[in-house]
Amino acid sequence: MSDKTHVLSHPVVKARLSKLRQTSTSPKEFREGIHDISIFLGIEASKNLQEEEFSGQTPVGTFTGTAIKPKIGLAPILRAGLGMTDAMLNLFPAAQVYHLGIFREKTTLQPVEYYSKLPSDTTIDIVYLLDPLIATGGTATAALQMLIDWGMPVNNIKLLCVLASQTGLNRVRAEFPELEIWVSGVDPELTDRGLIAPGLGDTGDRLFNTLRD
């Protein structure tokens, strides 16, 4: 792996990911698992954030505290990225949330952009791009290009992903070598339909209970 690609190896994360994989996992349990893993990803991906000091008062005396200095943005890719958003807002309650609408065309597997909540000017210092699955890598690279075109340097973007295929990860890495990626698991294969194998299935459908037979 690149030194900018970080794969979590925590036992709790591995157990949560294993639970997510199972067909028997209910939508409620699936949402909880995505939330929990997103907390781990967010903590790890933010451990080097710049801090600033301030003087405060406890019930007993004064103290010198710290606060996060950069302004944080979250960019969930609709719709599955919504499953990661609340977890990240727990860590960064004041973060600005910019929804990005991108879907993968079923025949060509190419990304199609249909929505962007990015304002005209960048008002943040760091943005966390939230995408539970990196399969072919097409959706992630399209979202990354949207953020770069908006004005965010790639060094100020962090991609957080629950599960990636090795193929998709390689594609993102090749197109954006300076990008920092945090992922909780990497699977070796893609099916001919562009699905991660063994994977999780369709994350959006499992999150929002819209599975079809």
From TrEMBL:
Domain annotation Phosphoribosyltransferase: ranges: 7-210
Keyword GTP-binding annotated: yes
UniProt KW keywords: Allosteric enzyme, Glycosyltransferase, GTP-binding, Nucleotide-binding, Transferase
Enzyme Commission identifier(s): 2.4.2.9
A matching Pfam family: UPRTase
Origin superkingdom: Eukaryota
Broad class of enzyme this protein falls into: transferase
Known pathway: Pyrimidine metabolism; UMP biosynthesis via salvage pathway; UMP from uracil: step 1/1
NCBIfam families: PRK00129.1 (NF001097)
Record's protein name: uracil phosphoribosyltransferase
Organism, scientific name: Rhodofomes roseus
Lineage of origin: Eukaryota, Fungi, Dikarya, Basidiomycota, Agaricomycotina
